[in-house]
Design goal:
Layout (H helix, E strand, L loop, with lengths): L2 H11 L40 E15 L11 E14 L5 E11 L4 E15 L3 E8 L32 E10 L3 E8 L10 E10 L2 E10 L5 E10 L2 E10 L6 E4 L5 E4 L6 E14 L2 E14 L14 E2 L11 E3 L2 E3 L7 E2 L1 H7 L11 E9 L7 E10 L5 E10 L4 E11 L5 H4 L4 E11 L1
Antiparallel strand pairs: 1-2, 1-24, 2-3, 3-4, 4-5, 5-6, 6-7, 7-8, 8-9, 9-10, 10-11, 11-14, 12-13, 14-15, 15-20, 16-19, 17-18, 20-21, 21-22, 22-23, 23-24
């Protein structure tokens, strides 16, 4: 389909979703736009002191099955599959307010009869003199705003996506510091300890947020030795009943290397430290009362713009070139939203997209200069516990997109069933069809939360 059709579909579907049909990525994390400020900045640190030491346990177990009729994509996996995903969280909270938390996940691929184990989060959270909060370990952080796109978030491993995969989000390993300033401001710092073998491998981020009248605003930065500087600003407020959020990031150069053809005609990687860039995103959302039921209908719209992206054109260049000698024989992997995806090791001679994917340089829905997305959720659809969700996302550069429609039934006892249909559209080697192909797919899911 063309872009005008996509723009027409957005207000009708009012939804958004991710770039391709990846069975492990169905049902990615859903987050609504930030509500207007109440004069107190929200925080995920321990805010209340428990009466005594307490240990709690929670989790969920999901059974999913997929079927696909996609055509023409790079993903050559079967058109059907089934998985079991279980995660469990154990939290120990002391009377002082300090706590320890661990989230474990087990994934079983029924089709291949194989299982894998993951530690998604594991950290210790405490305070020094009631003034400085420290959290050390693997953790998911509140950093920036946005539903799908959060330009200022350079610390989390797994980005936000509309349709959450079964299981917990992957955390970032490091040390977080928080200094509350009254009830209206917070200062944060985060030192990333993942893959750090020497002191010059450390990266650090900081964030200062405050409530200013009816708005919450924040400034942030990211720094690493011999790497470009990143500075960001974001905020949220309410305007005429709508929740509004936006954020922008300025980069002094490339954060990661880009595929290039070197002087010898090989595929190589290069990073331009003087390539200044701006990334900006924002969205609006609102809940509506329908037939006397408050918040029955929720609409959200969001977009992303980048001044100097890698560009969707890298997917269309089919010219094959040899890899530079330094990369020949190197191990290859593809990580999408923090989730490792098994890929066949390519030949040292590939096109640009193959070289990019093999070196983990692809982030879903951040390739082109612009994206638009929206979501509509209608609760108590026909019956009390049934919810209808319509979604759509489009790449404004190449006109490709993805639409979804889902019915989900959830009881107060933690049992839920859902059926989601997907439709991928676009030309060959457009972003939304490059991995997934074009056409329909469907997923059925059943779960219990406890």
């Amino acid at each position: 389909m063309k872009t005008p059709i996509l723009l027409l579909a957005l207000p009708l579907c009012a939804a958004f979703a991710e770039e391709g049909f990846d069975e492990s990525s169905f049902f990615q994390d859903t987050a609504k736009a930030a509500a207007p400020s109440t004069g107190a900045v929200k925080t995920d640190s321990v805010a209340a002191v428990a009466a005594g030491a307490k240990v709690s346990f929670s989790g969920d177990l999901w059974s999913t099955g997929q079927a696909s009729w996609r055509r023409g994509g790079l993903d050559t996996t079967g058109g059907s599959g089934a998985q079991l995903v279980g995660d469990a969280t154990v939290e120990a909270r002391l009377s002082t307010g300090s706590r320890a938390l661990a989230t474990f996940e087990v994934d079983h691929d029924a089709t291949g009869d194989s299982s894998s184990f993951h530690v998604r989060e594991m950290f210790v959270d405490g305070n020094v003199g009631g003034v400085l909060w420290l959290r050390g370990g693997k953790q998911v952080l509140q950093w920036g705003r946005g539903i799908l796109w959060t330009p200022t978030d350079l610390v989390n491993v797994e980005g936000r996506t509309l349709v959450a995969r079964a299981g917990a989000r992957e955390g970032a390993s490091g040390l977080r510091l928080q200094v509350p300033v009254g009830q209206t401001a917070n200062l944060y710092g985060f030192v990333n300890l993942a893959h750090v073998s020497a002191s010059d491998s450390l990266s650090a981020a900081w964030r200062a947020e405050a409530a200013v009248g009816p708005a919450e605003v924040a400034v942030s930065g990211w720094h690493k030795k011999d790497a470009p500087t990143a500075l960001g600003i974001d905020g949220s407020t309410g305007i005429l009943g709508w929740d509004v959020q936006a954020g922008a990031l300025w980069l002094s150069g490339d954060l990661q290397a880009r595929p290039v053809v070197d002087g010898s005609g090989y595929w190589n990687l290069a990073r331009d430290d003087s390539r200044q860039q701006v990334r900006a995103g924002g969205g609006i959302g609102r809940s509506f009362t329908v037939l006397g039921v408050p918040d029955r209908l929720r609409l959200d719209f969001e977009g992303l713009w980048q001044s100097d992206p890698l560009g969707s054109g890298v997917l269309k260049d089919r010219t094959r070139r040899d890899w530079a000698p330094a990369f020949q024989g190197a191990p290859t992997s593809l990580v999408v939203n923090g989730v490792p995806v098994q890929v066949t090791k390519p030949s040292p001679s590939t096109d640009e997209s193959g070289f990019m994917l093999a070196h983990g340089l692809y982030t879903p829905n951040q390739l082109s200069w612009g994206y638009l997305a929206g979501m509509a959720s209608f609760q108590q659809f026909v019956v009390q516990d049934l919810t209808l969700t319509l979604q759509a996302l489009g790449n404004l550069e190449d006109g490709s997109g993805l639409g979804t429609a889902a019915l989900s039934w959830r009881t107060f006892r933690g049992f839920s069933v859902s059926l989601t249909g997907y439709w991928f559209w676009g030309r060959s080697r457009d972003e939304e069809t490059f991995l997934s192909g074009s056409g329909p797919a469907v997923e059925a899911r059943m779960g219990v939360a406890f």
